[in-house]
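haha ok so turns out i had the wrong file open the whole time. this is the CORRECT one, sorry everyone. sequence first:
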Amino acid sequence: MIDKIKTILANVDIGGQVRSIEGGDVSLEASVRNILSVVFAVVGIVAVIVIVVGGVNYIISQGDASKIQKAKNTILYGIVGLIVTLAAFAIVNFVMSGL
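then structure:
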């Protein structure tokens, strides 16, 4: 994924025009798909990290009810974020395929 980001950033010139690796211009659709795929991947990774952090907090809560509730909320928010990200990804792909 980081290589994909580096490739995209390396192929953007000063004027904002995106070039393909072969030197030709990339269509707007391809540019938007590339950027959105990177954004969705980053958001998905962040959501998984939030879920893991919530799980670790749950494990180390030592029976404290407020810490347990906070950890459960963290896990819930991470899952909701992951679901929203997947839904947004599906909607964007549906709309882009219709164009």
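The mean pLDDT is 82.
again sry for the mixup
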